[in-house]
Amino acid sequence: MAKDLPPLVIHLDLNELLELNQVLEQASSGLIARGEVISKDPSRDSKILKVVVDLFQPLAAELTIKLGDGTGSDRFLKAAYAWGLDPEIGGMSAQGVTRSKLEKFSRMAADTGKPVTGYIFEGVIANWIMDYLGSKPVSVNNIFGTTIAHELGHQLGLGHEKGAGDIMFVFDGESRGNQINWLRSAERDALSFTDAQIKKMQSLLSTP
Ligand SMILES: [Zn+2]
Fold first, then answer.
1. What is the Å distance from ligand 1's center to 124 Cα?
2. Which residues does residue 88 pair with via DSSP β-bridges, in sequence order?
3. For residue 175, is pLDDT > 70?
4. Could you read off the pLDDT of 58-97 as tens digits, one per residue?
5. Is 28 a domain residue?
6. What is residue 19's predicted lDDT score, i.e. its pLDDT?
């Protein structure tokens, strides 16, 4: 289906993702603070990557996801610990920037000074989970993977959609019921891009 399209290369820097279950436990007891050392599940990166790979597989004949801090004309997203940021912003990303222009769109990563084109914020997502889902255990890796896909969707030209059954659900300003529905669907890894969204992303992907 996508054999004429250029390969899609996505760089993800997930180094700042902590073990969120522990973060949640400490946060709910008021003990969490930035810089605290919390152990990290060594297999969580691969669990998150599987969600992302599955969601973007229909897009390109060749999909490569690299961990690390790649920059340039590839899609690049960084995980950032940001407890107490605007509680509705779980991530941010360039929207609809073509490959040749992507390099010019960048925010400097606060910790490394390297340009990035998108972020997801773990602390904010932890807030969502505490506020909206509450009970544990929660499959946080699926929620991270889906949030990463949402932000990369912006980079590939997608805007927001109203429905809680859509990866590009706007979240901010929506009803609490819809927000809970979206998080529950993300947790079950039950969301996927629509055919129209895939077509739109493919058209941007084939634009230099
Ligand atoms: Zn968005």
1. 14
2. none
3. yes
4. 988 888 888 876 666 678 888 887 666 777 788 988 888 8
5. yes
6. 76
What sign has the CA pseudo-torsion 84, 87, 91, 92? negative
Structural domain boundaries enclosing 161? 8-205
Q: Note whether residue 3 is domain-resident.
A: no
CA distance 81 to 71: 20
The whole-angstrom separation of Cα 206 and Cα 208 is 6
| 3-state SS class at 107 | strand
Residue 53, domain CATH: 3.40.390.10
Model confidence at 111, pLDDT cuts 50, 70, 90, reads low
From CA 185, how far away is CA 110, in angstroms rounded? Answer: 32
What global pTM score does this model have?
A: 0.88
CA of 29 to the centre of ligand 1 (A): 30
Residue 84 inside a domain? The answer is: yes
For the chain, how many structural domains are there in total?
1
Distance CA 154, CA 150 (A): 7
- CA 72 and chain centroid, separation: 19
Separation of CA 148 and ligand 1 centre (Å): 10
Q: Tell me whether residue 1 is in a domain.
A: no
